[in-house]
Structures are given as C-alpha cells and as structure tokens.
C-alpha cells in the first residue's frame, strides 16, 4: 500500500509571509534552464508529455466555454496564468490560443530562458520570477499548473492561493503524478535511475493521489469536473487514458461563488 504523504495544515497560517517555494526545488530546476527547450535534453520527458497535456487542455477549454473546436484562438480576451511555467512549454501554446498570459516560476534562470524564447517566437507573455502567493492580480479566467504541486512545500496553501486567483466562472487545470507503486517504479526507479529525468527531481512521498487532491480542492470551494489519466503507450508515447495510476490531469471549477480577492 502507498504511504500517506505529509500534506499537513497550511503552513501559511503561521504568518503573512509564508510561501510555497522550496529553495532546493527552485535551484534544481533552475540548473536545467539552459536546455529546457531541447527536446532531447533534461526536459525531454516534459516535451513528450506536452502534446497529450495540451490536447486535453484545449478540449477542456472548448467544453468549459462551449467553444468551437475548429477555432484557432479560443482564449481571445481571456487572462491565463501558468504557475510553475519553467521555460514556457505550456505558456506559449496558451498565448497562441489568444490568451493574455501571465507565467510565473520559482527559478530566475527559467524565467530568463522563457523570456528569450517567447521574444524569438514573437509572443507577448508576462513572465515573472515569483511564487503564486506573491501575486496581487485581478482573477484569471484560466489557471494551469502542470507537474508542479508535487514540488511545493505546502499543497494546501498552494491551492488556497490558486483559488484566490481564479474567477468565479474560471477553469483550473492541474496535472501531477499519482502516488502508486507504478509511479514509483516508472518515474523514480526507471526514469531517474536511467537518466531520462535528472536524478533527484521527484520525491515519491510528495506525490498526491486524486482522492487526496480532491479533498484539498474541496477545502477551497473547488471540485474536479473531470479526471483523466496520462499513460505511456510504447507505440505512441504519452496519451490521455482512463488509467490514473501513473499520472493524471484534472479540469476543476468552483463549487460555489467566492470572492476572488479573499484568501
């Protein structure tokens, strides 16, 4: 049986300056910034995950706002926030879909690479080196945080800030590895052990199950409207699946109206 993670109470309740960023995690990912956009580099696994994740996000967008799947820019006029953006692997597709994108990351090195890459692509993205707790913004239509929550110091506090920043009728997309024997084998033992992912990237004990994440979301007045798995098919790579035992992705909305300016 998988062990229980130490999700704990909100550390942020101890004082107004408390945050969710782990300096060690930020340093680990910042050290990989230079080759973030190299599909064969340290972030190769994220490049392989990207198409499946973005297809799911586009479908969730069209479903949530009753959009036209043929439209090139379904997010025109909408504000989107990418939390833990790295060098912009999800931020840039969101901008291409027409969104006004703010993207944040804990590693200054990642933000520098992201800004340079966006400029080279002709994309206007507001990249910032900060944690979600420091944002004092009007609420966003769309928030995405992909493979991030397993790296923060306090998942409950992290989600409370996300809830504060989400519009009452907004859409939240979260993806993260599940805490199962399969994820430990595939992600930690094999992927990290064989060098497909930099060693030390993941702490399996911090992985969160869908049930645990649902409970944390519920405490913030949020609920999944759909949970799908991200599975690996040796023939086609990563695919959206009914199996959530490796990795999963959620579409999330509010269960009740809430003032986005409240903590």
| Strand segment count | 8
CATH fold-level label? Rossmann fold
Oligomeric category: single chain
Percent helix, as a range, is 25-40%
CATH architecture: 3-Layer(aba) Sandwich
Task: Supply the number of structural domains.
Answer: 1
Which residues sit in consecutive blocks of at least 5 with pLDDT less than 50? Answer: 1-17, 257-263
Question: What structural class do helix, strand and pairing data support?
Answer: alpha/beta
Order of helices and strands: HHEHEHEEHEHHEEE
Gyration radius from CA atoms, angstroms: 17 Å
How many alpha or pi helices? 7
With strands numbered from the N-terminus, the spatial order across the biggest sheet is 3-2-1-4-5-8-6-7
Largest sheet: 8 strands, mixed
Distance between the termini: 35 Å
Strand content: 15-25%
Average pLDDT over all residues:
90
CATH class call: Alpha Beta
The global form is globular
CATH superfamily: Vaccinia Virus protein VP39
What does this structure look like?
The chain has a single domain (about 20-255), classed as 3-Layer(aba) Sandwich (Rossmann fold), CATH 3.40.50.150. The chain is about 30% helix and about 20% strand. The chain has helices at about 25-30, 45-65, 90-95, 110-120, 155-165, 180-190, 210-220; strands spanning about 80-85, 100-105, 125-130, 140-145, 165-175, 220-235, 235-240, 245-255. An 8-stranded mixed sheet has the order 3-2-1-4-5-8-6-7. The chain starts with about 20 loop residues before the first helix and ends in a 9-residue tail after the last strand. The model is unreliable at about 1-15 and about 255-263 (pLDDT under 50).
